[in-house]
Amino acid sequence: MQPHFALLASYNRWMNERLYAAAGTLSAEALARDRGAFFGSILGTLNHLVVADTIWLQRFANLPGRDAILAPVRALPTPRALDAMPFPDFAALTAHRRWLDDIIERWVADLGDDDLRQVLRYANTRGDRFGRELASLLVHFFNHQTHHRGQTTTLLSQAGVDVGITDLLALIPDAGADAAPPHPH
C-alpha cells in the first residue's frame, strides 16, 4: 500500500506546483476576490487546504514513531477554524505550501505497512472522538486535497487561467501496451 500513498504524495506536490504557478499569474486582488466558492476566493480555498493539512498532520504526529518528520508541523499553532486565513500573502502561502508538501512526501516515504494499519485516535474540530486506521485516513487526506484543488482549478478557469493537465494518470508510469492485461470482455 505504501507505494500507492507515495504516488498520491507526489501527485499532491505536482498539482500544488501547477496550481500555485497558475494562481501566481493573478493579481492579489483577483486571488482574494470572493468567487462564491466554499471558502470564498482562490486564496481562501488554498488557505483552507493548508489549514486542513496542518490539522491532519498534527493528528498523524500522534502516532508512534512519527515524531521526527512531523515535529515541525506539530510545533505550528493548531488552526482554530477551517476557514482561517493564516497566509493572506500569496508568496508566504506558496512558501509554506512547498514546505508542507516536502514534509508530506518525506513522511509518507517513511511509512511501512504496519504504520498504515495503526489506528489513530483523534478528535475532530467539533470535539467528536474517533479511532480510524491510518491507511483509510490517508485516503481521505489526499482525496480532500484533490476535491479542493478541483474547486480551485475551476475558479482559476473562470478567471481565465488554464492549469493544464490535472489527472493523476499523468504521474502513473506507462508499462507499455504489451504489458496491459487483456480486456475482461
From TrEMBL:
Q: What is the protein's given name? A: DinB family protein
SUPFAM superfamilies documented for this protein: DinB/YfiT-like putative metalloenzymes (SSF109854)
Q: Which family does it belong to?
A: Belongs to the DinB family.
What InterPro entries does its record include? Answer: DinB, DinB/YfiT-like
Arranged from A to Z, the UniProt key words for this protein are: Metal-binding
Which Pfam families is this protein grouped with? DinB
In which domain of life is the source organism classified?
Bacteria
Q: Does this entry carry the keyword Ubl conjugation? A: no
